[in-house]
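Hi there,

I know you've been waiting on this one. I reran it after we fixed the sequence typo, so this is the corrected version. Both the input and the resulting structure follow.
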Amino acid sequence: MEKRDYYEVLGISKSSSLDEIKKAYRKLALKFHPDRNPNDKDAEQKFKEAAEAYEVLSDPEKKKRYDQFGHSGMKGAFGGHGFDMSDFAQAHGSEFRDIFDFFAGGSGSIFDAFFGAHGASGAQHRSAQRGESLQFELGITFDEAVSGTQKEIEFRRLDTCAECGGTGAAKGYSKKKCPQCGGRGQVSSSQGFFSVTTTCHRCRGSGQVVEKPCKACNGNGLVEKPHNIKVKIPAGVDTGVRLKSENEGSMGLNGGSRGDLYVRIRVQPHHLFERTGDDVILKTPIDISTAALGGEIDIPTLEGKVSLKIPSGTQSGKIFRLKGKGIRNLHGYGVGDMFVKVLIETPVRMNSKQKKLFEELKENLSLSNFPDKSAFIKSSENNKWK
């Protein structure tokens, strides 16, 4: 099925602000959330469709590419495997925790507050919480994006506190049953016809509280520390590609597993080459003599210099295609092409002899030597200008 326009999906315009984009997405996500629409495949599809639209339009680089090339410009924009709902939930969990907890394996969705935690006891359901997934923006050069590389990055993440071993309790102290919820991790209250069950704020759903908090981590059991890893950058990546390093995010609470690390690539522009998908564009100046008489010029490519034949009578703006001289596709679908656009450069600062030669040339040329100019004159003469 053909994809709908992302702006149409969210019901917004191209001029909408980031805040408006976010509000539009939240409204749709809450409307079509699977918890609210059980066994409704259409609602599930619209939920994912809205998420994909938000992922693109909330990212300045992706939005720019989408506005320019449409859906075709999104090729490779989701880290090499297409849009993935679980990746999206992990990456944007902190923004939309109430919506994505269901998908991220967290503490339940907003609907749990009204209908319970899917039949599980609070302490059992909420004790171990998966750690937060992190994002890291990595800048690389154009050449590194083309050839692939390996980078060592440093970032900060939450790790188990060495002082208390992750318990959150000071030495000589331990955890005890939460007096607020009686160890259940949840508290209930009646509101009209509903019995509302919410996570206990005192113990944050664990069912336990610390008698005396560890001073090193303030009772959280986690402290922020620097961490270094090596990230392999595959050949063919482009700005906006997100690489996933599993279990490299922050440590979870109460023995929960680590989150993931998402490395978002930002490719620095090249001083000669311009990239469009897997194709490369090169603009090169040529002198007027070569354009008129023809000849050969040396041009740079991603693999070194090659010779390009210029036919006589070449016009400024002419584009030549060099097949297979572009960028290797990130997903292994061949290699792009290089497009060379020639720009005729008119000589400047000519001496008297050079000017005289041009004057002689001008006297020996006629309108028949300039078919575009001739066609323009004929067209303008056939129109009545007011």
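Quick highlight: The chain has twelve helices and 15 strands.

Best,
R. S.
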